[in-house]
Amino acid sequence: MKDTVDNRLIGRSVARVEDPALLSGRGRYIDDLPVAPGTLALAFVRSPHGHADIRSIDIGEAQRAPGVVAVITGRDVAARTRSMTVGVKADVDCWPMAVDRVRYVGEPLAMVVATDRYLAEDAADLVLVDYAPLGVVVDPVAALLEDAPVLHPSLGGNLINERHFRYGDPEAAFDAARHRIGIDVTYPRSACTPIETYGVIASYEPGEDAYDVTANFQGPFSIHAVVARSLNVPGNRLRLRTPPDSGGSFGIKQGVFPYMILAGIAARIAGVPVKWIEDRLEHLSASVSATNRQTRIDAAVAADGRITALDWDQIEDCGAHLRAPEPATLYRMHGNMTGAYDIQNLAIRNRVVLTNKTPTGLNRGFGGPQIYFALERLMDAIARQLGLDRLEVIRRNLIPADAFPYRTASGALYDSGDYATAIDRAVAEGGLADLYARRDKARAEGRRYGIGFACVVEPSVSNMGYITTVLTPEERAKAGPKNGAQATATIAIDPLGSVTVKVASVPQGQGHRTVLAQVVADKLGLSMAAVRVLADVDTMRDAWSIASGNYASRFAPAVAGATEIAASRLRDKLAKVAAAQLNISPNDVSFADGRIAATSNPDNSLSFARVAAMAHWSPGTLPDGVDQTLRETVFWSPPELEAPTAEDGINSSLCHGFIFDFCGIEIDPETAEPRIDHYVTMHDCGSILHPAMVDGQVRGGFAQAVGAAFLEEYAYGADGSFQSGTLADYLLPTVMEVPDPVILHHVTPSPFTPLGAKGVGEGNCMSTPVCIANAVADALAPDGDAPDIVLPVTASKLASRIFGDEPTPKNPVPETEAGPVTGGRKLTGEGRAVVKASRTEVWEMLLDPATLDAIIPGSHGVQKVSDTRFKADVTLGVGPVRSRYKADIELSDLDPPNAVTLSGQAVGALGTGGGHGRITLTDTDNGTEIAYRYEAEIGGKVASVGGRLLDGAAKVVIGEFFRALARHCGGSARSGPFARLIGLFDRIRKGGRS
Q1: DSSP helix/strand/coil, 963
Q2: N or C: less crowded end of the chain, CB within 10 Å?
């Protein structure tokens, strides 16, 4: 049986079959799918606090709101579910919704089911929660201190797991080394921000006690078992489906699964299907992000720069809950801790810590950015300290080409590579010599210009057993072995000879349908138009496994590889059928141009459709040994992916690509803005199936990495408030910030995959941030100790290094200040207003509920509880979001009619506020002067709706209160910062602007 090599589709950049639908707006995303009649909308009530006990939840008013069918609390959910699986042995519950305590801003604690989303959101604002705020910890190192606030009392602390590993003899290597060189590295959080956010449609069948859930979930489908167990049903009572299209993920849509549980419970309680589409504010503040990590890494180094041992100490911040599959981010790279370098001695200490931040999960690169930022910054530090060329230090430590397959100290089996040759080609073809000349010229002219390098191994096709390395060998033995990376593919032929391919891998723009059509069309000698590919998932219909899904760059090596095997098996069967019809040997059969022919006599042929249809129309004529040719399903798992050994060795991924990057960065002398001048990235991703799509994957990873390096930052206040909750605060790269990289390829096919392919697309998220950091460090300090670089590298961070501290302003504004404090963001101010009323009249107005109701901005009513206490219901807005608040106001230190202190607090969906102010009344010739000084704290979600808006918003609201009081008394404000603000707003309004 001969393969046709002429006009092969694999390896060519053919037109994508997905694009006509996607480019014409005909993609089928979750919000496009039809829903059953009567489907209701779901909205969530989320915590404004980073950490607080829930004293009570009053849902009465929300239940009575228009259109509301059900209001469901965490206790309602807990009564119908089990705690979600935690990936380590620890005495801690992990509920999909808060029950007794909230542990991060944005954590859901109630949900509302209503006839539409608008009414559900309105009713969610009416849910009244009484919180008892607790101490907050957002720094992972601080979380380990004895006096740190404890998130889970049952755990007794915030350290949820710790493991020590030792490979080779690292102690002896350090004792014998000429140098011990180490650095401390902080890697911050960043997130994926796909165009499409989370979405879930769920229904419950009471007669079957079964759930039907559609979600834009990417996998891994091991989470299906987590969701089924939490819902208290067998796996066959949870049907999980995905839409045909997904608007991007980059890892983050793995984190939708707690909402799959919650939507299922909401449908069960409401008695009808429910639908939830996450909004952008929810997605930024309450989905999942990559972990932040604190690392200490030391190297034992010989005089020539060769590394003989590494010592890692890693503190992983997984946020408020350790949700499956975490702490996978920490262990995905466990076999790759020595990177591209031949280092045989290794010590690792891993600590997993909980803090008052969002739970973490998959993010493009998934553990690689954190590892390589530390390792490649260390390589830069070694070269500096020893006075060696940076690139030469990399070269001296590389794994030699004749060592592959190469076993790392911690157990990874690197499949193929020629790292030195790839680097040599990148240096020559990427123009490093010209870049050196450009740097030297810039420096001669007094400009800050640096060159950075990064050298990384990109793992792909994760071993499902790697996460069990977090357990001790004894715990693993008790639980049973876990390993492998099973991929599935089904190919079916209909009576007309058309071919359908089904895989359990949800595409998010990568081009699954195109590549699989190439694979099958090549194998069966058909045109791509004769092959249709389906890549959505239905767990009640499709062949799938716990490893199914679109993650860990597994599509080309594993999913396309399984499809290749299925196509080969089906082809072998068809060859036997055709051989019997053509009176030739099966070895003489060829497939080409829609026909099956004798290779020795091409005129002796049959149409593919006729041969393929025989199993449908005449199954009795099939030759002996051929069971059927209708369908072939393949479950493929590579034997190289074994369970962790008793010595904690783990081949954590099947394939290991290689990336070498170098870049030139110039820092603007006026603004301190860093700019990429030239970027070269060399990739070895094995056999390239579709060059244009590989190029697109590299460019996409590079763009996301540029964002992580320069722009994107998950920022939290000391009170746990999330301060990056809009795209005005969480900045994303655009075409203006992302230059065109030089992309090069050096191919060493993988011997472990059916098509020789390795993963591609995540690698630049691992290599680019540290390459840029090394270049910035070179620009700031070409010689001597390396400056500490913490991402993102912004102009504001570099300015203080270049220009020194900012000078004190000549005319400071003493009336306001803002900064993180224990309870939230602190705001202080003062001002004056003159009203045409006597002190006694003003005093009476301040104590009159009707007057307060008239002058409080956004007031819906003021209730007098006692002579000195009031309750108010107000609506306030910050930026694009408005919310209803319940406020308590108390008067103290009364000196009628001269002075009074107002104290109060407010709680609403946007967050919390509280503070106090002193008001004094003084007679003047024009009436009564009201002077006020206040101090307030704002926390919770309000900080995530644009931290830059807080100061101005608070000033305007308080200023509007006193201006309204002045109007009510027939006077006007005449001085203070609020008078200036009010005047500005008046001028804007008069100019026709709102």
Answers
A1: helix
A2: C
Q: pLDDT digit string (tens) for 536-587?
A: 999 999 999 999 999 999 999 999 999 999 999 999 999 999 999 999 999 9
Burial (CB < 10 A; 0-12, 13-18, 19+), residue 782, is middle
CA atoms lying within 13 Å on the CB side of residue 781? 15
How confident is the model over 389-419, as pLDDT tens digits? 999 999 999 999 999 999 999 999 999 999 9
Neighbour tally for 877: CB within 10 Å: 15
The answer for residues whose C-beta is within 8 angstroms of residue 31's C-beta and 6 or more apart is: 196, 199, 277
DSSP code, position 2: B
DSSP state of 621: G
Sheet of 210-215: strand order equals 68-73, 108-114, 40-46, 274-277, 199-205, 210-215, 238-241
Which residue has better confidence, 73 or 965? 73
Report CA-CA distances (Å) from 49 to 12, 818, 907, 947: 53, 19, 10, 16
* Alpha carbons 648 and 475: distance in angstroms, whole number: 12
Where does the pLDDT of residue 381 fall: very low under 50, low under 70, confident under 90, or very high at 90 and above? very high
In DSSP terms, which residues pair with 491 in a beta bridge?
501, 632
Q: What is the pLDDT of residues 296-307, one digit of tens each?
A: 999 999 999 999
Q: How far does Cα 949 stand from its chain's mean position?
A: 26
The full 3-state SS of 810-869, as one line of letters, equals: CCCCCCCCEEECCCCEEEEEEEEEEECCCHHHHHHHHCCHHHHHHHCCCEEEEEEEECCE
* pLDDT tier at 291, thresholds 50, 70, 90: very high
Retrieve residue 388's tokens: 């060696």
Which residues are CB-neighbours of 691 under 8 A, at least 6 positions away?
11, 12, 13
Q: Inter-axis angle of helices 390-397 and 419-429, to 10 degrees?
A: 150
Give the pairing type, strands 40-46 and 274-277: parallel
Higher pLDDT among residues 840 and 757, named by residue: 757
DSSP string for residues in 397-442: HBPPGGG-SEE-TTS-EE----HHHHHHHHHHHTTHHHHHHHHHHH
612, amino acid identity: A
> Which DSSP state fits 553?
T
Question: Does 820 have pLDDT greater than 50?
Answer: no
DSSP for 250-294, written as a single string: TTGGGGGHHHHHHHHHHHHHHTS-EEEE--HHHHHHHS-BPPEEE
> What phi and psi, each to the nearest 5 degrees, are found at residue 909?
-65, -25
3-class DSSP assignment, residue 229: helix
Going by C-alpha positions, the residue among 2, 23, 682 that lies closest to residue 340 is 682
pLDDT tens digits, one per residue of 86-133: 989 899 999 999 999 999 999 999 999 999 999 999 999 999 999 999
Rg (CA), the chain: 32
| Residue 323 main-chain phi, psi, to 5 deg | -95, 145
DSSP structure string for 895-949? ETTTEEEEEEEEEETTEEEEEEEEEEEEEETTEEEEEEEEEEEEEGGGGGG-GGG
Please give the average per-residue pLDDT across 239-253, as a whole number.
95
